[in-house]
Amino acid sequence: MTDPSTGSARDPDALIARAGIAGDPNHDQHFLVDDRVLDRLPAYLTAPESVTAAATHHILEIGAGTGVLTDRLLRCADHVTAVERDPKLAEFLREEFEDAIAADRLTLIEGDALEIDIPDSVTASVSNLPYSVSSEIVFRLLPRSVPLVLMLQREFAERMAAEPSTSEYGRLSVTAGHYARVEIVEPVPTTAFSPQPAVESAVVRTTPRVPEYEIPNDEFFLQFVTAVFTQRRKTMRNAIRNTAHISSLDNPAAVVTAADEDLLRKRAGKLSPEKFAALARLAWNHGEPTEW
Ligand SMILES: C[S@@+](CC[C@H](N)C(=O)[O-])C[C@H]1O[C@@H](n2cnc3c(N)ncnc32)[C@H](O)[C@@H]1O
């Protein structure tokens, strides 16, 4: 077993062979086998704008697989929390990283990333995500305001980083853009994985930002943005009028009366995350201006 802080990083193919698990695409198991991509992932976090001032650098990895990325993260973080749902992989990780677990440098959580409690002390996440639950995981991570480096399906990454007035711009771009600056830092070919996925991938880096307008409630904001984008061909005036099914928005007419006329004439796809946040505040406050 290699000391996680010294020596060369574990070899991807050797880890797969030791685990004896080839990877099942039906369970989002596409293991990274390209050393150069693996080495770059933690390095993207250390770009100046992503540096954290926290005393303990605690990286969360979702979907640890055979531990090939976990190994690299242990070399640059004080602590790593790795989450893996597959019991066989979790068992392998417990054996492979026995020393790091005993030294209290690695916490292994066997469970579903959508259900586990994410520790408050986490300062960043670097993950090669299970693509079938990317949006749920991204929506869980973004409100935590920590830097993220995530391997994602390329089309998803493009939607996340999209600007207003483009065809990719939607609820994912608005919510991501509210919490963070989003950059695609690297497209990744299918050959970087084993087994190879059917889709192209890309690495996204998010850098938390202080939003111009605070939102009242993360869940409400997501519901509001989703409800408006399901009617993206309508003007905001008509889309908001139709959002009565959002339980917390009981008086859409009051929002329409109070909102800026310029915003109401536009369609959702033209509005920046800031404008969405301003509207969500009004909606939360039943059309009354907010003091926060
Ligand atoms: C794309 S693989 C990445 C594996 C490894 N980090 C790598 O880069 O080679 C995603 C991993 O997430 C695990 N996984 C799938 N769904 C999950 C979930 N809901 N919660 C936690 N892990 C999950 C899969 O078993 C798989 O090991």
Please summarize the sheet with the most strands: 7 strands, mixed
Present as ligands are:
S-adenosylmethionine
Helix content: 25-40%
How confident is the prediction overall: mean pLDDT? 90
EC number: 2.1.1.-
InterPro entries: KsgA/Erm, rRNA_Ade_diMease-like_C, rRNA_Ade_Mease_Trfase_CS, rRNA_Ade_methylase_Trfase_N, rRNA_adenine_dimethylase, SAM-dependent_MTases_sf
Domain Ribosomal RNA adenine methylase transferase N-terminal: 37-210
Pfam families: RrnaAD
Structural summary, described in words:
The chain folds into two domains: 12-208, Vaccinia Virus protein VP39 (Rossmann fold), CATH 3.40.50.150; 218-286, Helicase, Ruva Protein, domain 3, CATH 1.10.8. The protein is elongated and about 65 Å long. Strand 2, helix 3 and strand 3 (79-84) form a beta-alpha-beta unit. It has 13 helices and nine strands. The protein is of the alpha/beta class and 292 residues long. Mean pLDDT is 90; it is low at 47-51. The termini are far apart. The strands form two sheets. A seven-stranded mixed β-sheet has the order 4-3-2-5-6-9-7. Strands 1-8 form a two-stranded antiparallel sheet. The site of S-adenosylmethionine (SAM) has 23 residues, from strand 1, helix 3 and strand 3. S-adenosylmethionine is lined by residues 27-32, 62-65, 68-69, 83-86, 89, 112-114, 128, 130, 133.
Short description:
With 292 residues, the chain is an alpha/beta fold. Helix content is 37%, strand content 16%.
Task: Identify the notable features of this structure and list them briefly.
292 residues, alpha/beta, Rossmann fold, Helicase, Ruva Protein, domain 3, 2 domains, 7-stranded mixed beta sheet, two-stranded antiparallel ribbon, 13 helices, 9 strands, 16% strand, elongated, binds S-adenosylmethionine
